From TrEMBL, chain A:
<dbReference type="InterPro" id="IPR003439">
    <property type="entry name" value="ABC_transporter-like_ATP-bd"/>
</dbReference>
<keyword id="KW-0472">Membrane</keyword>
<dbReference type="Pfam" id="PF00005">
    <property type="entry name" value="ABC_tran"/>
</dbReference>
<dbReference type="InterPro" id="IPR050388">
    <property type="entry name" value="ABC_Ni/Peptide_Import"/>
</dbReference>
<dbReference type="GO" id="GO:0016887">
    <property type="term" value="F:ATP hydrolysis activity"/>
</dbReference>
<feature type="domain" description="ABC transporter">
    <location>
        <begin position="48"/>
        <end position="299"/>
    </location>
</feature>
<dbReference type="GO" id="GO:0015833">
    <property type="term" value="P:peptide transport"/>
</dbReference>
<comment type="similarity">
    <text>Belongs to the ABC transporter superfamily.</text>
</comment>
<keyword id="KW-0813">Transport</keyword>
From TrEMBL, chain B:
<dbReference type="InterPro" id="IPR035906">
    <property type="entry name" value="MetI-like_sf"/>
</dbReference>
<feature type="transmembrane region" description="Helical">
    <location>
        <begin position="133"/>
        <end position="152"/>
    </location>
</feature>
<keyword id="KW-0813">Transport</keyword>
<keyword id="KW-1003">Cell membrane</keyword>
<feature type="transmembrane region" description="Helical">
    <location>
        <begin position="278"/>
        <end position="298"/>
    </location>
</feature>
<dbReference type="InterPro" id="IPR000515">
    <property type="entry name" value="MetI-like"/>
</dbReference>
<dbReference type="Pfam" id="PF19300">
    <property type="entry name" value="BPD_transp_1_N"/>
</dbReference>
<dbReference type="GO" id="GO:0005886">
    <property type="term" value="C:plasma membrane"/>
</dbReference>
<dbReference type="GO" id="GO:0055085">
    <property type="term" value="P:transmembrane transport"/>
</dbReference>
Length: 378, 311
């Protein structure tokens, strides 16, 4: 990291939350000597801005409101983790950004999904294709099904660069070999001629990553990239992500429900629940100072080695029906701190710092007062 | 690969042997003989004829001599038409039947795949419904009914195509249409359903996320995977087309092998029955072998042979 970059980073953190120096250690390796190759730089250049994104699907059973007003920004070189349980809209959000929602039955409305200066929701399919795989790439959950079984790895790697960058056969092949080297696949030249079934699951995920990176995208959306892999391979793939980010400066949106993954590589976290982002903050803020009861519940439900004995603490209840989502806070029905207002009115955003924002009535001064009074009464 | 082909070849020989044996005994189980006719033949003449064609000998001797004729591929002359050998009949009839069959297969496969793919890409739209309605009709109408309707409408009433024989490309239109519609409809329905399934696969989504042009996604990514079930059913369809040619050749007065085959059975013309049956089955078995080869080409996961070290 150059002096200038450090200065920039410092400037950004000061600008946003005035947090202590410790909070800017985005590699998350407090107390350890950080290997130089894993250094990365988060700048204040905003490359993605999602504003009030709504996605609905018309089905025979009615209209599902899968995503109900999602807002977030992403900066260059940053890793944003979108966390939440199944069906909370994380994958739909990423597919909507990527332009992979079939319309109909899907329907997208927003106040803008800006990639740099362009609004992705206003682009034609043809214009979108010039961004897909070139500026924004996607990594899929299951490497066993994401690769076409009838085409060679080489063809699947090179078809993107051939089409988008007009590379010749030889150049494209060279590029493909470089990519396979980058993601750590031995004998790349021979491997290019092979088919997906000749690779293991972890190898295939590396290839999927190589395919996503071959056009040098600025944004990488990884939709549960490690869920289908076993734990040792997961760790390798996560390290690969860190390495690639350090080398290329790519921004990453990481969709996951695995808080272990988040703790390892995320800079910032957005917690989603029932189609809304209910809390966002940088990694430390979310892990050490969660404010939304759902976030707290989510963190509490992770099994811990350091607390001996004890049972797992699930969050009671089930997520709301997205065919008819509640008007108030969607978590109210499961929330131990629920108040009358929660079930009727959705809370406004409360900013706790430049990065830490939460949608919860408990943050309202009146509620705070009430809590203090109750505590005092006890 | 060489080993695989050799193995398959041996299997083919065994299959043909079984078919020939079955044909021989079934043929002799049917009452009547090639020498029977309405005319009253002198008994000595009859006996002499029987001796000439070796029909007076016990069945197992006859069987051996027929087997010999298959191995040497010399079936001798036809009993009904002694001026021609079976080999001559095959040489004359086969090229025409082959032409009819191959054109039919090409038309059925190409148009069936195009129709099915279009229906899948426009799922639940007008084109889809129209294509599938057409396919259901195509499957439901037997080819001999379709053939007569085509002759009546297109040849007799509207005078668009000649009604019979096999002399110019124009003559080929009606028989091919009559024979290809059924298989085409089956292929179209199969392609549509497997295409619909393939289009929901992750690797198609991934190709779209790569910004690949839709045309290339369909042709390069989806079609190849969608064609596997079509290849599977090709064997059955080939057999269907082959037997279909007998009927169609008869209706359109096409001088192919089918005519000799049907006539020979009616006449109990033993050498011709044996010759045509063995030839037809050898041809069909060879086509099925080609289908298996195509499998391996379409899907690299299917190995026709085991290399050392492969699992």
């Amino acid at each position: 990291m150059t002096g200038k970059q450090i200065a920039e980073e410092l400037a950004r953190t000061r600008l946003e939350d005035g947090a202590d120096l410790d909070a800017i250690d985005h590699t998350g390796k407090r107390g350890k000597v950080v290997k130089p190759k894993k250094h990365k730089t988060v700048t204040d250049e905003r490359i993605l801005s999602v504003q009030d994104l709504h996605v609905t699907f018309n089905t025979y059973g009615g209209t599902v409101q899968a995503v109900r007003g999602v807002n977030f920004d992403l900066y260059k070189g940053e890793t944003l983790a979108i966390v939440g349980e199944s069906g909370c809209g994380k994958s739909v959000t990423s597919n909507a950004i990527m332009g992979l929602i079939q319309q109909p039955p899907g329907k997208i409305s927003s106040k803008g999904v800006h990639f740099k200066t362009r609004d992705l929701t206003k682009l034609s399919k043809k214009e979108m294709r010039k961004i897909q795989g070139v500026d924004i790439s996607m990594i899929f959950q299951d490497p066993m099904t994401a690769l076409n079984p009838t085409l060679t790895i080489g063809e699947q790697l090179t078809e993107g660069v051939k089409q988008h960058k007009n590379l010749g056969k030889a150049e494209a092949k060279e590029r493909a070999i470089d990519m396979l080297k980058l993601v750590g696949i031995p004998n790349p030249e021979e491997r290019l001629k092979q088919y997906p079934h000749q690779f293991s699951g972890g190898m295939r995920q590396r290839i999927v990553i190589a395919i996503a990176l071959i056009c040098e995208p600025e944004l990488l959306i990884a939709d549960e990239p490690t869920t289908a892999l076993d734990v040792t391979i997961q760790a390798q793939i996560l390290e690969l992500f860190e390495e690639i980010q350090a080398k290329t400066g790519v921004s990453i949106i990481l969709i996951t429900h695995d808080l272990g993954v988040v703790a390892k590589i995320a800079d910032r976290i957005a917690v989603m629940y029932a189609g809304k982002v209910i809390e966002t903050g940088d990694k430390r803020e979310i892990f050490y100072n969660p404010q939304h009861p759902y976030t707290k519940g989510l963190l509490n439900s992770v099994p811990r080695l350091d607390l001996a004995g004890g049972e797992l603490k699930p969050i009671d209840g089930t997520p709301p029906d997205l065919f008819a989502p509640p008007t108030g806070c969607p978590f109210a029905a499961r929330c131990p701190f629920s108040m009358d207002v929660c079930t009727n009115v959705y809370p406004e955003v409360t900013a706790l710092s430049g990065t830490h924002k939460v949608d919860c009535w408990l943050q309202d001064p009146r509620a705070q007062k009430l809590i203090e009074e109750q505590a005092f009464a006890r | 690969m060489g080993k695989y082909i050799f193995k398959r070849f041996l299997m083919m020989l065994v299959t043909i042997f079984i078919i020939a044996t079955l044909t021989f005994f079934l043929m002799h189980a049917v009452p009547g003989s090639p020498l029977e006719s309405d005319r009253n033949t002198n008994e000595t003449v009859q006996a002499n004829l029987e001796r000439f064609y070796k029909l007076d000998q016990p069945l197992h001797i006859q069987y051996l001599s027929y087997m010999q004729s298959i191995v040497t591929f010399d079936f001798g002359p036809s009993i009904k038409d002694p001026n021609r050998t079976v080999n001559e009949l095959l040489a004359r009839g086969f090229p025409i039947s082959f032409e009819l069959g191959i054109i039919t297969i090409l038309v059925a496969v190409v148009s069936g795949i195009i129709l099915g793919t279009m229906a899948a890409l426009r799922h639940n739209k007008m084109i889809d419904y129209a294509a599938m309605a057409f396919a259901v009709i195509g499957i439901s109408i037997p080819n001999f009914v379709l053939a007569t309707v085509l002759i009546q409408q297109l040849a007799v009433n509207w005078n668009l195509f000649p009604p019979a024989t096999w002399t110019s490309p124009m003559h080929m239109v009606l028989p091919v249409l009559a024979l290809a519609t059924g298989p085409m409809a089956i292929i179209a329905r199969l392609t549509r359903s497997s295409m619909l399934e393939v289009l929901t696969q992750d690797y198609i989504k991934m190709a779209r996320a790569k910004g690949i042009k839709p045309m290339r996604i369909v042709l390069r990514h989806a079609l190849r995977n969608a064609l596997m079930p079509v290849v599977t059913i090709m064997g059955t369809l080939l057999a269907g087309i082959l037997t279909g040619t007998f009927v169609i050749e008869k209706i359109f007065a096409i001088p192919g092998m089918g005519k000799y085959f049907v006539d020979s059975i009616n006449n109990r013309d033993y050498p011709v029955i044996m010759g045509t049956t063995v030839f037809y089955s050898a041809f069909l078995i060879f086509m099925l072998f080609l289908v298996d080869i195509v499998y391996g080409i379409l899907d690299p996961r299917i190995k026709l042979h085991k290399k050392e070290g492969d699992v």
